[in-house]
Structure formats: structure tokens, C-alpha cells
Design a protein that fits this description.
Helices cover 0% and strands 50% of the residues. The protein has 242 residues and is mainly beta. The chain has a four-stranded antiparallel sheet, with no helix packed on it. Strands 5-6-7-8 form a four-stranded antiparallel sheet, with no helix packed on it. Strands 9-10-11-12 form a four-stranded antiparallel sheet, with no helix packed on it.
Length: 242
């Protein structure tokens, strides 16, 4: 699907979660362009929705990200910051307005967005100058202006020396980085397993609460009560299902 009638310098790509709307951010016009897919996720059915948003007042655009409900949009400036916008109509970029909120990275070059965690309390960026992924904590979920560096950085130099953009898998256990020099996409796994804090009212078979499943593993826990919810009995009924 060609977008040349709207943009000849595309950098960022995003989709509505149901695959019926596509967004492209462009560096020539510093504009986000909106497209409709009559068949979800089928690019051959795309058409320009005649909706766009020009962000030249804030950003030299490289990337576009959205809050999962489509009410906020985040645009990445190639050299300085991520800027936050409100959409008065969800998923309609023509209704966007700047919220005067941003997250700046002093000295960063070829700045790209990687995305948010599922609850909007963490934001991840790509720094093309240091070939790294950087993590930020947001004290207010989905409010980019409350972000502060967590100190966690992942360097991609062993694979990618010109990282420009990327995205996470739905679960957040994998992320993908595109390299501008080698024309490759690199895949990474996020190490470290989840933790579960079980309520003290659960009495577990064997006396000890089970650990959370490892990344990529599916376990089943069955919890029941026979006193109306004062106490519970817990059992691990399946381990490491495929």
C-alpha cells in the first residue's frame, strides 16, 4: 500500500488494536496520517481516511504511539523528546490537541519510541546515538511528563549499531528493534519472571505458596472456599502446559 500521495518520508507506524485503522508518521511534513482498513489487518484494503494531524510546532517526527483506548497519542521528536496529545474522539487523529506535556532526553540523537508497558507506568525509548533502549518510570500512568529515568538501559550494539524504531509483543516478553544500517529487525527476550503475591487467606497444599510461572510457561491454579470466603484452599493443578 503506497502512502506517497500523503508522505514521502515515513518513519513511524501504528495500528488500532483491532487492526481496522493504521497510522503513519512522516518526517517530511511532520504529520500523522490516518488510514482505514476495510478488512482488519489486510494492508491491501487500506485507504486514506482524509484525516491527519500536523505536529510541526512540537516535533520533527520519527514515531507515533497510542494509549490502548485511543484517547492519547505520543509523538517522538528525532532529537529531543516524546510529546503527548489528547484525542477528543478516540482513534481520530484529526481531533488531537497538544497537552503541553513531554519527556525530554538531553543529548539523545535519532530518538525513537519503543512503547509502554500494559498499565502505562513505564515508557521505553530507543537512543540511536548510544545504540540503547532506555526505561522510564511514569509516576502517573500514561502521563509522559511524570517520567523519570529508571537507570535501566539495554545496549543493542552487539546486533544493532543504528537502531531507529521498535515495538513490544502483546505480553511484553519480547521486543523488536529495526536497524537503519543493516536493514534488519532484531528480536529480544525480556528476562526475569513475573512475581505473584498471594493473599494470606489462601492455604496451599503442601504448606507453601507456589511461585509464578516462568516466562512463556502456562500453569493452572485452582482456588476454592467452603466458608463463604473467609479462608481459601489453593492447589497447583497444572504445570508448564504447552
Amino acid at each position: 500500500f503506497s502512502i506517497a500521495s500523503q508522505e514521502t518520508g515515513p518513519y513511524g507506524l501504528a495500528f488500532k488494536p483491532d487492526g481496522t485503522i493504521m497510522y503513519v508518521s512522516g518526517a517530511i511534513n511532520d504529520t500523522v496520517w490516518q488510514y482505514t482498513l476495510s478488512t482488519a489487518w489486510d494492508l491491501s484494503t487500506a485507504s486514506y481516511a482524509s484525516k491527519s494531524f500536523n505536529a510541526s510546532a512540537q516535533a520533527n517526527l520519527t514515531d507515533v504511539k497510542f494509549k490502548p483506548d485511543g484517547t492519547k497519542m505520543y509523538l517522538v521528536d528525532v532529537n529531543t523528546a516524546t510529546h503527548q496529545y489528547a484525542l477528543s474522539t478516540a482513534w481520530d487523529v484529526s481531533t488531537a490537541s497538544y497537552e503541553s506535556k513531554s519527556l525530554a532526553e538531553s543529548g539523545t540523537q535519532f530518538y525513537g519510541g519503543l512503547g509502554f508497558n500494559s498499565d502505562g507506568t513505564k515508557y521505553f525509548t530507543i537512543d540511536g546515538a548510544t545504540d540503547s533502549v532506555k526505561e522510564y518510570n511514569l509516576s502517573t500512568a500514561w502521563d509522559i511528563s511524570t517520567g523519570s529515568a529508571s537507570g535501566t538501559t539495554f545496549v543493542t550494539t552487539s546486533q544493532s549499531i543504528n537502531p531507529r524504531n521498535g515495538t513490544f509483543s502483546t505480553s511484553g516478553h519480547k521486543f523488536y528493534v529495526i536497524d537503519n544500517g543493516s536493514d534488519d529487525v532484531f528480536q529480544y527476550s525480556c528476562s526475569g519472571n513475573a512475581t505473584i503475591t498471594w493473599p494470606s487467606s489462601i492455604e496451599w497444599a503442601g504448606g507453601a505458596a507456589p511461585a509464578a510461572p516462568a516466562n512463556g510457561e502456562t500453569d493452572i491454579f485452582t482456588i476454592s472456599t467452603d466458608d463463604g470466603g473467609t479462608t481459601y484452599q489453593g492447589f497447583k493443578t497444572a504445570d508448564n502446559l504447552s
